[in-house]
Specification:
The chain has two domains: about 50 residues, Orthogonal Bundle (Helicase, Ruva Protein, domain 3), CATH 1.10.8; about 170 residues, Elongation factor Ts, dimerisation domain (Tetrahydropterin Synthase, Chain A), CATH 3.30.479.20. The protein is built from twelve helices and nine strands. The longest helix has 19 residues. About 5% of the residues have low confidence.
């Protein structure tokens, strides 16, 4: 497959647009896939969002909770075969346990002492590489803490307790019942696993993403031929809808779609017995944003046959 054909194929997978539309978009944008996706959306040809990344790396995401502190870690392996290995899973659980004793940054976790020996986490992972025979890396870590309240956790499709491919933490501050707050926080964590919100509040949404969406909505509106003052109102309406879709507190709660997450929190305060506030969340999906080399097996066989 030629480079240009491969780009068209990838553009089609990203946007859902037709082959010729993708080819034209790539020609207009010099072969830039992201710019081509925006070009297609501006033309109204594609309504699909760019995929968040190729989920390619294997391994496991782990959560660990201790009191009002909780951590997420992602340790990658080359194959799912190794990710299902008991020794690898024990390694990931131990790394998560160690992360609780640090500030949660990747560097601090990597440098922390690994249980049962004199080596740190990073050195112990290197030892495991030699033992298991496959490359492994500590990719990222995160820690959430509250002074009062609870940090709830959820692992989607956990292979064992606290270990899976999607992990979520939700921190709730309250003077009320911590266990009630944790129970509601777990529901919110399940919601986050399903919807992958961009931010907790409007103000926390990446400004470059906001600017990009405004530009796309404005270009789409101008194609209607309406005057600029009407276009401005159309864009405002589209942006309100955009924030409702990507901001956690404004999303419809998957547990009860009749309520937003913010409204569901108000309802939960009855069980918590005091005002409560979601102060942070963190979501790790295994391998998100990592591109993995893919091979065309049929092409490899054909090439081998010719040689």
């Amino acid at each position: 497959m030629s480079d240009s054909a491969a780009l068209v194929k990838e553009s089609r997978e990203m946007t859902g647009a037709g082959m010729m539309d993708c080819k034209n978009a790539l020609a207009e944008t010099g072969g830039d896939l992201d710019a081509a996706a925006d070009w297609l959306r501006k033309k109204g040809i594609s309504t699909a969002e760019k995929k968040s990344g190729h989920t390619a790396a294997e391994g496991r995401v782990a959560v660990a909770v201790q009191g009002t502190n909780a951590v997420l870690v992602e340790v990658n392996s080359e194959t799912d075969f190794v990710a299902r290995n008991d020794a690898f899973q024990e390694l990931v659980r131990n790394v998560a346990s160690v992360a609780l004793t640090t500030d949660g940054s990747r560097d601090a976790v990597a440098a922390a002492a690994y249980p049962g020996g004199s080596k740190n986490v990073e050195e112990s992972i290197k030892d495991a590489v030699a033992t298991i025979g496959e490359n492994m890396t500590l990719r990222r870590t995160a820690k959430l803490s509250v002074s009062k309240g609870a940090v709830a956790s959820y692992v989607h499709n956990a292979v064992v307790d606290g270990l899976g491919k999607i992990g979520v933490l939700v921190a709730i501050e309250t003077d009320g019942d911590a266990e009630a707050a944790r129970a509601f926080g777990r529901q919110v964590a399940m919601h986050v696993a399903a919807t992958n919100p961009a931010a907790l509040t409007d103000a926390e949404v990446d400004q470059s993403l906001v600017t990009r969406e405004k530009e796309i909505f404005a270009e789409q509106a101008r194609q209607s031929g309406k005057p600029e003052n009407i276009i401005e109102k159309m864009v405002e309406g589209r942006m309100r809808k955009f924030f409702e879709e990507v901001v956690l507190l404004k999303q419809n709660f998957v547990i009860n779609p009749d309520l937003t997450v913010e409204a569901a929190l108000k309802e939960a305060e009855k069980d918590i017995g005091a005002p409560a506030k979601i102060v942070a969340f963190q979501r790790f999906a295994l391998g998100e944003g990592i591109e993995k080399e893919t091979t065309d097996f049929a092409a490899e066989v054909a090439a081998a046959a010719k040689s």
